[in-house]
Design goal:
The complex is a heterotrimer of chains A (102), B (581) and C (511). Helices cover 47% and strands 2% of the residues of chain A. Chain A has 102 residues and is mainly alpha-helical. Chain A has 2 domains: 20-57; 61-96. Chain A starts with 19 loop residues before the first helix and ends in a 6-residue tail after the last strand. Helices cover 71% and strands 3% of the residues of chain B. Chain B is built from 22 helices and 3 strands. A two-stranded antiparallel ribbon of chain B has the order 1-2. The longest helix of chain B has 37 residues, at 497-533. In chain C, 74% of the residues lie in helices and 2% in strands. Chain C contains 20 helices and 3 strands. In chain C, helix 1 packs antiparallel against helix 2 (42-67), helix 7 packs across helix 20 (489-509) and helix 12 (295-315) packs parallel to helix 18 (428-454). Classes of the chains: A mainly alpha (102), B mainly alpha (581), C mainly alpha (511). Chains A and B meet through helix 1, helix 2, helix 3 and strand 1 of A and helix 11, helix 16, helix 19 and strand 3 of B. Strand 1 (95-96) of chain A pairs antiparallel with strand 3 (492-493) of chain B, so a sheet runs across the interface.
Chain lengths: 102, 581, 511
């Protein structure tokens, strides 16, 4: 299964028309080093809080597994990782160059 | 509200809902632009007033051929669709107000009008007429892009849509032959006619393997055209399924498949409008599952989800349209950092993304959870797990991927203008409804076809949904950080449209080759035979032979002889097999 | 056997003007043709021709009115009773076809010779008109007569005059097309004549009713079986049933468009009528379907015609050729109706006969308008004509939609009837094929719409709308395709009554 050579490799800034000079003119909080980490930290905090919230009420799921501690959290995480890895595999099969149909 | 509009009834009853919009398409082309813009903005408002003035249970019939056609039938189900269609029409028109191309405006009005009229069709023939008109008018929204690929995508779209209509007509005729009735009520799959109608609806509703037309054509339409397209065709099909096939169990696996498989494609698709088309397909899956379950809660959930979906899907397409307008592309591989120059669009897009992901306090949450609950109530374990998986997935590809790659990710240095004012206004209205419905679900619940006892905001609903969504986000972060996430690549992802865009044409060219060779072989043989037969006429032919090759009189004479033999054989064969005397 | 059928013998009673109508139907154009030579002057001849064709229309409508109730009019020439004299025999079926022919003639002749005028020397237009009137005479005569040999004679009259009309085409190729048509027409006519001769040999009469009665006794002789084959193949050639269709595209596309409009809407319709008259009327449904089973052959040929004609139409680059190939497909629908071997099927065929005459007549009139202004009907010259000739092109869209079979047009009524008839036979696959072939019509009509409305004209010289004299006939026909799509009561009712009468057969209808 060979990939079509016309698919451009990667999304690195190098092969795109970027203007670094302009970006420095227009720096925002998100551009600063560490900001992204802060966002991630907030996300992790919220996620942990949502799991801990399971202690605050009693679960009455239709099926037993729904009542497991943190079920939805685990399901969401596993589902997404599985989804992306499966989709990556799908790429090998289904991806073609942009002008495939021309 | 209905009571206060009652005096308007005679006026409102003058024509079926939606007709006004269709009729207005003609003057809109000729009026000066400012006036026609005002007219167009007023049309959905007048149309909605007309609809609300018609009481539930109102019908209007027209006699044509030997049939009585029920051109208007207002009931609780059709009314919800009518309301949301008018709402979507208003937003779409506002969003497209800057477009100068009058053909698009006229096509959009006819399209929207026929979709509305279709919802109020009381019989299958009326439905068929409007069903085909939505197809014929909407294709102009694709062609209006005026590119070679849009032209071809539009042709493919048209063929498939018209096929759906023909299947509907064939089904209607079969049903009429069986029961003598063409009334559009519950149909079911007990009869052959029912299956034809089911397939017709299935094509428009993007059943798995029948969905290729949508992801193929929607991203080819104009910026504003896609916003219109996303609102009506598929939702009309959902309405028709809810009317004709509520409680048909086969819809549950079909719908569950629809929720799950498009998201795999959405993850690797680069064109963000196409990603939205995939997530549109995924959202239709929820509705189809709801219809398949068929309980009051499930049907309410399906209808409510349509209502919310039309709005947030339009919002997402509008935001991507704004990006396309300003930047000139919506390829994930080429976008990034747009939040700096298009802050309002970013905010509206995030609201739309939150709604489609069903975050609490957004419209998606109060509607999708009804379908999930109905699935659990019915003990459909596997469908339930698939829907849950798809809920995580839709957040993943629509909720995060769309805003992330378009507005954040790597800053590509685009410094463009914010979207035009009319676009922002349309997006603001949509965003307002997304949050409004999420915060006050009671308003939507009141107009659903069945009484609603469902309470969306319970601790368990909210916490479980938050867990699902937050951990999906966490998974996204994890995959990005570990570089496991597939990068956006400029590419084409094959889908079932491959069958007719690649496989069939190639197979056809093979067949054509063989056919051509056979023809040459046949013609040379036939030619020899002809020359012998026509020796005596050749003297007459030669004076004109310079006018081109001789025309096939000889061939036809030969065919006549062959046909004579065939008829003689037929006659005498039967004579031989008959007993003597 | 003669249940509830009133037969009106004109000869046995005192004759009023009204009783002479069947004779006048044919004699009027027959006498008119030589008169054109006397009148000479173009305007005068043209007015005269139109007046005659409208008179024919009035007569045929009166005849239809008289026969609608199931009555049959017999007109004996010179009051010679059969089998000695020739008689005209008018029932619902042929009065319906008479209406179609004279209606199209009246509308199309009103448009004048169209583009053909440019290839006729000034001052010789009367030749066109007299040929047209002769052709009309032949077609009306074939339809109205109750004598099989008379059928052959009138068929030759119509054929010979139509060769002249086709040869009036602009290009020299028109001569070649006329010649091909001549050969094919002669082959068809010869086959038919052989068939008639065999039938005469076995029955000793040329009168249709007598012949039908006597045929019953000899229906399983080899001679009659051979006669059936010759008659069907002969008429099939005239009707351009696949695979005997090859003369049609050249003839219709090389002839002047006005002539194509007239012939496409009438000549093949008369041939279809003859097919019904000979198979159901003379041989009888029992012999044709139960004993021989011609539907075994006719049905696949019809379906092939539907697809081959439509697919070929898609690949054509000339508007008239597209229409001509589409005619082959449409003839397929009609013969498919017959091959269903039911009343509903034949009724559908007759409904389509009527509707197709209107829409194909209208479309060829559009071609005539295009030819008039552009000098060609190649699709390239039609680029952007939507803006330049909006009224003509609107007529094209109306008639084109009818050809596709969009609801609200006459084409929908035909297809509905045909699909219903197929479903009645539980021929689901056939019903599906009818639908599928409609999609092909969408393709070739759409291709033209795209060229007409969505592409830029190749040249920028001024193009005016077609003259009113041609627009009015064009829109009369195009408008009627819409009118009879919305109010299909007339065509459906008449066709159903006609089909019912046809299935009784001439022998059953009695003297």
């Amino acid at each position: 299964m060979s990939m079509d050579p016309k698919i451009s490799k990667g999304t690195d800034a190098g092969d795109m028309p970027t203007n670094d000079a302009m970006i420095t003119d227009d720096e925002r909080w998100l551009d600063r080093p560490g900001s992204v980490d802060t966002v991630i930290r907030i996300l992790v905090f919220l996620s942990v809080a949502s799991v801990l919230a399971d202690f605050t009420y009693e679960k009455h799921g239709h099926w037993g597994f729904q009542d497991w501690f943190g079920f939805d959290a685990a399901y969401g995480f596993v589902a997404c990782v599985a989804l992306v890895i499966a989709a990556k595999g799908l790429r090998v099969l289904l991806m073609r160059g942009e002008d495939y149909y021309d | 509200m209905t009571e206060s509009l009652a005096p308007m009834l005679p006026l409102a009853a003058a024509m079926p809902p939606g007709m006004l919009l269709m009729l207005a398409a003609i003057p809109v082309v000729f009026l000066p632009r400012t006036i026609s813009n005002i007219v167009m903005l007023l049309l959905p408002i007048i149309g909605l007033a007309q609809l609300l003035a018609l009481p539930i249970g109102y019908t209007d019939t027209v006699a044509i051929f030997d049939y009585t056609l029920e051109v208007t039938r207002v009931d609780a189900l059709s009314r919800v669709f009518g309301i949301v269609f008018h709402l979507a029409a208003f937003m779409g028109i506002l969003y497209a107000l800057h477009v100068k191309d009058r053909m698009q405006a006229a096509a959009a009005l006819i399209y929207v009008g026929s979709a509305i009229a279709a919802v109020f069709a009381g019989d299958l023939i009326t439905l068929f007429v409007w069903w085909e008109l939505t197809a014929l008018s909407s294709v102009f929204l694709i062609w209006a892009s005026r590119t070679e690929s849009a032209l071809r995508a539009g042709q493919r779209y048209l063929i498939i849509q018209v096929t759906s209509g023909l299947l509907l007509l064939l089904g209607a005729i079969l049903l009429h032959a069986e029961s003598g009735s063409i009334v559009f009520e519950h149909i079911g799959l007990e009869s052959a006619g029912g299956w034809f109608v089911f397939m017709a609806f299935g094509i428009k509703a993007c059943f798995p393997l029948l969905h290729g037309w949508m992801k193929d054509s929607y991203p080819e339409a104009t910026i504003t055209g896609t916003v219109f397209l996303s609102g009506f065709t598929t939702k009309l099909a959902i309405y028709a399924l809810a009317r004709g096939f509520a409680g048909t169990e086969i819809l549950i696996p079909i719908g569950a498949t629809m929720t799950a498989f498009p998201i795999f494609f959405a993850v690797i698709e680069n064109d963000l409008r196409r990603v939205l088309a995939y997530s549109l397909n995924n959202q239709l899956g929820y509705m189809v599952v709801g219809i398949g379950i068929g309980t009051e809660l499930a049907l309410n959930g399906a209808v409510a989800h349509v209502f919310a979906h039309v709005i947030y899907k339009a919002l997402l397409f509008m935001s991507m349209g704004a990006v396309l307008l300003r930047v000139g592309t919506v390829k994930g591989s080429e976008l990034g950092g747009l939040y700096k120059s298009m802050p309002w669009t970013t905010v509206f897009c995030i609201i739309g993304a939150a709604s489609i992901s069903a975050f609490p306090l957004t419209s998606g949450f109060v509607t999708k959870s009804m379908i999930l609950t109905a699935a659990a109530d019915g003990h459909y374990l596997i469908p339930f797990l698939i829907l849950l998986f798809a809920s995580a997935g839709v957040f993943h590809h629509s909720g995060i991927k769309i805003p992330f790659f378009a507005f954040f990710a790597h800053d590509r240095g685009f410094r463009v203008k914010e979207a035009p004012l009319n676009m922002l206004a349309a997006m603001a209205i949509a965003a307002f409804f997304c949050i409004g419905i999420g915060v006050f679900p009671g308003i939507l619940y009141k107009i659903l076809p069945y009484p609603v006892e469902y309470v969306p905001y319970t601790t368990s609903h909210v916490v479980q949904m938050l867990q699902l969504l937050l951990f999906s986000a966490l998974a996204f972060t994890f995959l990005m950080k570990t570089k496991l996430y597939p990068p956006e690549l400029r590419s084409v992802v094959l889908d079932v449209d491959w069958v007719w865009r690649k496989l069939l044409p190639e197979a056809w060219s093979r067949v054509a080759e063989v056919w051509l060779m056979g023809q040459i072989a046949f013609l040379s043989t036939a030619n020899k035979a002809r020359l012998r037969v026509l020796d005596f006429t050749s003297a007459h032919l030669s004076p004109w032979s310079r006018l081109g090759e001789p025309w096939p009189t000889g061939a036809t004479a030969m065919w006549a002889a062959m046909l004579l033999l065939a008829y003689l054989y037929l006659a005498f064969q039967n004579l031989a097999t008959r007993p003597p005397g | 056997m003669t249940d509830a059928v009133t037969v009106h013998h004109a000869a046995t009673e005192a004759l009023s003007f009204r009783d002479h109508l069947p004779a006048l139907q044919v004699l009027l154009p027959l006498m008119g043709a030589p008169l054109c030579f006397l009148l000479r002057k173009a305007a005068l001849v043209s007015f005269f021709t139109v007046a005659i064709s409208f008179a024919c229309l009035a007569i045929s409508l009166t005849l239809l009115g008289q026969t609608m109730g199931g009555e049959i009019l017999i007109y004996e020439f010179g009051s010679w009773p059969r089998p000695f004299g020739i008689e005209y025999r008018v029932d619902i079926t042929n009065s319906f076809v008479l209406v179609v022919i004279s209606l199209v003639a009246a509308v199309v002749f009103a448009a004048g010779p169209g583009q053909a005028r440019r290839s006729i020397p000034v001052g010789r237009e009367y030749l066109f008109y007299s040929a047209a009137l002769l052709c009309l005479t032949g077609l009306l005569g074939v339809t109205i007569t109750g004598d099989v040999f008379n059928v052959f004679v009138f068929m030759e009259i119509s054929s010979l005059s139509s060769y002249i009309l086709i040869a009036l085409g602009r290009e020299r190729r028109a001569l070649m097309a006329a010649f091909t048509y001549l050969i094919m027409g002669t082959i068809g006519a010869t086959f038919l004549l052989i068939g008639i001769g065999l039938m005469y040999q076995m029955t000793g009469t040329l009168n249709m009713v007598d012949m039908a009665v006597r045929l019953q006794a000899v229906s399983d002789t080899r001679t009659i079986l051979v006669a059936v084959a010759f008659v069907i193949v002969g008429i099939s050639t005239k009707l351009a049933v696949f695979p005997l269709h090859q003369w049609l595209p050249n003839a219709y596309s090389e002839a002047p468009p006005i002539v194509s409009a007239f012939l496409a809407a009438t000549a093949t319709k008369v041939a279809y009528y003859l097919l019904l008259r000979f198979t159901l009327g003379l041989f009888g449904a029992a012999l044709i379907f139960d004993q021989i089973g011609i539907d075994i052959l006719l049905m696949p040929l019809s379906v092939l015609a539907m697809f081959v004609g439509s697919i070929a139409a898609i690949y054509q680059t000339d508007f008239k050729r597209i229409l001509a190939y589409s005619s082959i497909a449409q003839i397929g629908y009609m013969t498919l109706g017959l091959s269903l071997a039911t009343e509903a099927g034949v009724a559908a065929g007759l409904i389509h006969l009527f509707n197709h005459a209107l829409m194909k007549g209208g479309l060829f009139m559009v071609a005539a308008c295009v030819m008039w202004r552009m000098g060609s009907t190649h699709i390239d010259v039609m680029r952007g004509l939507g803006q330049r000739m909006p009224i003509t092109m609107a007529a094209f869209v109306a008639a084109g939609l009818a050809l596709v079979g969009v609801p609200g047009t006459a084409g929908f009524v035909s297809k509905w009837a045909l699909v219903t008839a197929a479903l009645e036979n539980e021929a689901f696959f056939i019903a599906f094929l009818i639908m599928a072939s409609s999609v092909l019509a969408v393709v070739y009509i759409w291709r033209l719409v795209e060229i007409v409305y969505f592409s830029e004209p190749e040249t920028d010289f001024e193009v005016k709308e077609a003259p009113l004299r041609m627009l009015i006939p064009t829109w009369t026909l195009a408008g009627m395709t819409i009118w009879f799509g919305l109010f299909s009561g007339f065509s459906v009712e008449v066709a159903e009554a006609a089909a019912k009468q046809l299935f009784v057969g001439l022998a059953g209808a009695g003297a």
